[in-house]
Design brief:
Length: 94
Amino acid sequence: MGYSGFLLLPEAIFEALGFKDLRTDLSRIRLANGSFVEVSSIYGTIRFQDLGAEAGGRVQTCEGAEEVLIGIDGLRGLAITVDGCMKMCYARTC
């Protein structure tokens, strides 16, 4: 099971973008391992400039987040192809 949300950012990036200075929502989410974590979230937009596409949703952060994760909600409207042999990932709008 993977991340099904919109966008998860490490706390340092969330803060650098100025999100921490805005009014954020606090909630608890369940992780794939069954544990719970508190997350701060705010509405934001992802722009895929090369595709001419954008998506809006809840941008989240939590203690211990170390990577940027684009979830299923953040990829809606895109067709993603992963080529493990060529070590490439391709995207197009659908």
